Amino acid sequence: PTRRSSDLVIAADAPDSFVELVSNKGMYVLDSVGEKYKSLLPPLPYYINKKPYYDEYANAYKNVFPITYSGYQSFCLRDATMAYTIFKFLGRNPTFKIMHIEGDFHIKNI
Residue 84 and residue 88: Cα distance in Å, rounded? Predict the structure, then answer.
């Protein structure tokens, strides 16, 4: 189908700068960002998925980059931000329908 001019597109993912920050310093570094920027994020602290999600993450990416807990926290930041962004949008626009396109790994265990 073709996108109509009346269709809305929302960016649901976490900004890359925050994902990188968490990957390097851990999720609690977000406590120090300004309120303006926190509005782009889910409520802090956000949920960190437990096993088996972590094990699947580590197995899937072990040959791509070093597996660290802060890297996993940044991965969970993406999940939490996407979910919260869509939740907020639907709260303001309850009659809208959402089609979320994402790789299956991010939504597999949610």
Answer: 6
